[in-house]
Amino acid sequence: MRRAWLLVLACVLTAALAWLAVLQTRWIDKVSEAEGEAARRAMNVAARQFVEEVARELAGAALSFQGATPEPASLVRRLQEWAGSARDPRLIHAVYVADEAGALRRLEGMWNGFSPGPPPGGRPSAAADGLRTRPTLVPALRPPLEGTLTAIVVQLREGGVLIAELDRDYLVRRFFPEIARRNAEFDMAVVERGAIIWRSRPDWPRFSDDGVELSMPLAMMRRRSRESEPAREEMLPRLLIRRHGAPIKEAVAASRRNNLAVSFAILGLLGGSFVLLAVLARRAERLRVQQLEFVAGITHELNTPLAALTAAGENMVDGIVTDKPQIARYGEAIVKESRRLTDLVAQVLEFAGLQSSRRKQRAEAVDVARVIDDAIGACRWLADERGVNIEPDVAADLPSVEGDAAALRSAVQNLVANAVRHGGDGKWVGVHASRAGEQVVVRVEDRGPGIGARDLPHLFEPFYRGRNAARGSGLGLAIVKRVAAAHGGTIDVERRRERGVAFVLRLPAGLQHA
User: Into which CATH architecture does domain 360-508 fall?
Assistant: First the structure.
């Protein structure tokens, strides 16, 4: 029932995470769309500010001359008024007046009076030259205000047209950069009839449609008719603009990917936390069961020698045992059960000591042959009880190891006792010690029934007892593994195909360990 509820809970949590991932993805899509819209709005606002500021300067200059007459005095007065309020009088480079016949007169020095045509030896401006060579264009300029980045054209009150030629060098070097500096997050450029006349970055654009995200007509004009709009639109200079760095579409996509990565990383952490909690809960449950089994097993193991000792003592006290042979047998039983009880208590205490972080292994040169001999001697009574022959085989050139002699003796004793208890059916246990390179190898093997495949992964877990183990605390092999690790060594198990099993303890020969 508990497993069923855990499975249901896992399914619910998985579904909740999946639904949360879907909601998170939708939310990130909406956020990315909003980011893109905000960036495009900001770009549009920046472009409009640029265009409007240029148009405002051109319109201000044009409106200063609107309603003026062709007389020099009127034009000079209007020019002085405009220069006093203009952002920079250098915007206008020259002023011309064209009559209905197309004849041009230049405002000499912009203050003194008229002279016909451009100055002697000077190059005529594009606006002036165009009107001089094409007089039929003048009657077509009927709107009261018209302008480009080349010139401002104003219809005068008593006939004729005023052409205020703009200073292109001032526009490119001062005017445009000052406006663009207020929107540094965008790259801007101005093109006229396909030619790039100014750009805020030296490497962009390389041509008129090089990665442009927004294009907008730069100079504002009034047009005669709808038929003339496409042609005039084509002739107008345009502002090209893009986001500095990656384009808006790519920047939004990158931001979306980053948001998705962070969101799914968080969801992954949540899912991993659920899995970790489930694993820890499962492990805690397994540990609880093992501890319960340990308590039950250790209680049984303690009760057996205690019951034997109690029975023997009561029989001797009650006078049931009187002759010397019986007393000797009872004494032998008391000693045997006392040893079993002592070994069991010592094993439990040793495991508890290994678990404590305050316990430190002593570092000294340890004679491995002496350790094996002492371990076999401690297990001799158990082997005699079960009729098992323990056969030692220790190499003569066996080097010493650095470590704690008592801990190593306990590890070997546990391996030998484990082989006698669980492999004693073969009536033989072999203990071999040899040198292999920079290691000392202790091999304890038996000819018993062996170990089941299901028990192998859990052999060295505390409190674990094999399915075929009738007795034991489940601590012996766990103690061996911890002692081996503390000495920089390893413990492995080798299964035989026919019968028996071998445990191989490898320790570094004469090496210091942490």
Answer: 2-Layer Sandwich (3.30)
